[in-house]
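Researcher: Let's continue the batch. This sequence belongs to CIDE-N domain-containing protein, and it's 134 residues. Same format as the previous ones, please.
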Amino acid sequence: MAPLSIQSGVKYAKTLLPKTLMRSMSTVQTTISRHMLPLNRPRCFRVCTYRRMRRRSLTASSLDELLEQAARVFMMSYQFLTLVLEEDGTVVDSEEFFQSLPNSTPLMVLEKGEMWTESKVRAEMTFIIVAELL
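Model: Same format as before. Here are the structure tokens for CIDE-N domain-containing protein:
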């Protein structure tokens, strides 16, 4: 008896499976893909500039889209923008990290040469709380 090729093995396996089962497996795969791997949906973010004087709510479904919107709204050069978490200055530099952020995350857009600094109001509040504890 001659050995089976991979193609003939696949054809033989298909004859064993009823077409309804093959269709239902395809439906299950599509359903799992929809629920487990959702499409990037637009989400709202609160974006401010370096000095925290200008703030806007921007809606985007990707990091690039949000940077483009910030560049347009704040009249900045897109090529030199960096996006960071306003709270602690963590750089948002990958699409995966961006997608993990919850809605309404406060972000800061920085131009070339600007570096994140803690908010003066937040620093004063921290100082007051620490002083009260002492």
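Researcher: Any comment?
Model: Residues 13 and 115 are 61 Å apart (CA to CA).
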